[in-house]
Every structure is written in structure tokens, then in C-alpha cells.
Design a protein that fits this description.
This protein is α+β, with helices and mostly antiparallel strands and 458 residues long. It is 51% helix and 11% strand. It is globular, with a radius of gyration of 22 Å.
Length: 458
Amino acid sequence: MSPEALGVNPPGESRPWSTILALRRDPLRYLERIAARYGDIAHLRVGPYRLVYVNHPDLVHEVLVAKDASFIKGRALDQAKEVFGKGLLTSEGDFHKRQRRLIQPAFHRRRVEAYAEAMAADAAAAAARWRDGETLDIAREMMSLTLRIVARSLFSVDVEEESAREVGRALDGLIAAFSLVAIPFGGLLRKIPTPSARRAEQGRANLDALIYGLIDERRKAGTKANNKASHEDAGEDLLSLLLAARDEDGGLMDAAQVRDEALTLFLAGHETTANALAWSWYLLALHPEAEARFHAELDTVLGDRLPGAQDLPDLPYTRQIFAESMRLYPPAWAVSRRSIEPVTIGGYPVPAGTGVLASQWVAHRDPRFFPDPLAFRPERWTEDFEAGLPKLAYFPFGGGPRLCIGMGFAKMEGVLLLATIGRRWRMRLVPGHRVEPHPRITLRPKNGVRVTLSRRDP
């Protein structure tokens, strides 16, 4: 691509508002088309904004790692503070570093591995309710299951089936609200009392009531977290750590900040993993040979028992399935930043205030780095293959200082849930049910993933 191309709009995209329509209508195909036509870097106009789209690991590394200090989150996440507050997802600068430092102990390896037994138990309980020959939406089942797991693991709350559905509906409302504020002037549109806007507001009110209620209960009960000065002495769950966390000056977070962090991690802790699992089951149902190898590994390693953290090294193919699923269907399908000062990317000048976009969906399907990129090949994820990948050719959890704080939690949960459910069940797609990606804040399967269950014995 020539340097001049950064100064013009791609042919067919000369009207800035047409880019907005294309991104709203089918962002995945649009980004694929722009990458195919312009290569590793392109300039777009999105309404009144400039946008640089990068599509090479070296350029993504520049933005997310090497020159991270020159960027803040994109405009969509800045506007999303109206929905999610100032949690890790939306906060910036020193405040973000402070909050991440306070929250990080909740995701230390020792604590994460302590959740393994409960994860497997919850998955086994959910799968025990299914019936041989039953047809269900496995995407919805995974949403409910991961919601229960994050509620129990991070907040020590048991969420029953009906409560899980209610919380899920509330989160759906917040995701819809995010989708609205993510477009130019969307914040104003969200204030119009449409049915979707009302559902979003009701969803936020319901979640606020839940989270503030939990905070009040902990404080009124005089929990350990409210009386200890260190993470080591606080309760084991995330909420206890948030309530106990103190900064360098000894200050505690107020209830509003605890709410923002809890809500952010509540959403991130179940939405992305649920989607990755739904796509994993979809891909296994389409590929019986991979499914057979998956089941053989589980039978050999686990037999008739539940998996634990100690089994993870012995389940390499299960891990490869989860990695390959997130390659083909990354739950976070794009990442955006905004320059706060003039900077260069790939040698091209990028003015302050310019948006920068990279897409995991496009990058993970790049044939330069992933041979036969549209094929589901879990076995590609060998140690040698991973060692040979350029940094940030594969980045389902982002990269740099804002790498997903719950990455270890999500990876362990994904493998344990696949193993626990795969011990007892195989799945086949319902004939005629169309499964396609639906890119919102995460990459959900549109209309779910309807499967027919078949019981198997280890």
C-alpha cells in the first residue's frame, strides 16, 4: 500500500456515512473486504472521524504494546462509560493501572486453580439435567452455565436457573445499550425512550440492584474483606478483594467503583467464555473426526471422573480445540484505540485524535500465518507452531498492558467445561438451523446453536 492511500478514502467508501452503514450492517465482511483490497494498513472515514485499520501483527504490536502510551481506548468504549461506568474495560491512564494492580491478586494462578473443582461440578450438574435425544440451544446453556460459575467463583453467590435467566436478560440489555452508544451520536439516541433503550435501562437497574445488594450485605455482615488491610487476609472471592483493596495511600474503593469493576468482570467473566464454548461445540459437531479424537483423550485421561486443574497438562487436544475455536470465532472480534498525540504506525503519520482498529476476526484468518485458514484444525496448535507465530498474529485476549486480566481464568474454564461435558455428551447440529456470527460487543452465534444430544459413556 502506498503512503498516499492513507490520505484518501478507499474507492466506494468516499462518503463517510457509508462506512458507518457498512460497519453496522456486516462489519466482519466489510473488514475482510478492506483488508483484501488495501493490505496491512488503510485509512477510512467513519462519520466525522478518521480511522486507521491495521492488519499485520507488527502493526498491531506497535499499537497495543510498543506505542501503547500514545493511545487510549477507542471512542466506543469511551462512550460506554455511560453503561459500564469506570471499570477496567473503560478506565484509562494511572487510574486504570491502579485498578488493575488492586484487582490482579484475584487472578493469581493459585486463586484461579482453586476455582477448578467448582467449575467442573457446576458443568457436571448442568449436563446431568439434559436428556438423551433432547434438542437445545447450547449457546444459551453455556451462557447460563458460565454465569453461574462467575457468580460462584468471583462473588460467592449461587445463581439458580431462573435467576441466571433474569441476570442474562439484564446483561443482554446492557450489551444492546453498548451497541447503540458505539455509533456516532449513539449516546443521544440511547436517551430516546425506545423499547430497546427502556430494556437497557431496566437491565442496568436490575444489575445495579444485584451488585449493590451484594456490597451492602458484605458490609453489614462485617465480612473479613471490610476489616483487613491486605489481599492475603481478605475473603477468597473477587467481591471480598474489591472491598478490601487499598491503594498506596490506604484508601478503599467507594461502592460506585466496586460496582463498576464488579459489573465489568461479571460481563467479561461469562460472556466471552460462553461464546468461545458455544463456537467450540458448533465446530466439534461439524467435524466428527476431531470430536472422536477429543472423546478419546477424555476417556484416556479422565475415565469416569471429573477433571481438575491437575489434569490440564494431560488434555492438550482439548486445549487445542479451545484455541482453534477462538481463532476462527474470536469472542472479541475487534479492538480499537485512539491516538492522544501524533504518532507513526508502520512509518505512516497518524494525527492525534485518530481512531485505530485491528480485527481478530480478520487477523486470525490470515493465510500468511495460518495455513488453510478457514479449516478447523486444532492439531495446528503445537508448541513449535505457537513459537513460530509472530507476536499478536493471534490475540483473542488482546495484548500489551491491557491484556485481559482474566485470561488464565477463561482458558482454564474453557478446557474444564469442554472436558466435563464432553465426557458424557456428543452433539449434532439440528438440520436446517442456520448458525452465523453476530458481531456485537462480543461475537455471539446469531439465533444460537441448536443441537441434538447423544449420551455417551466414558
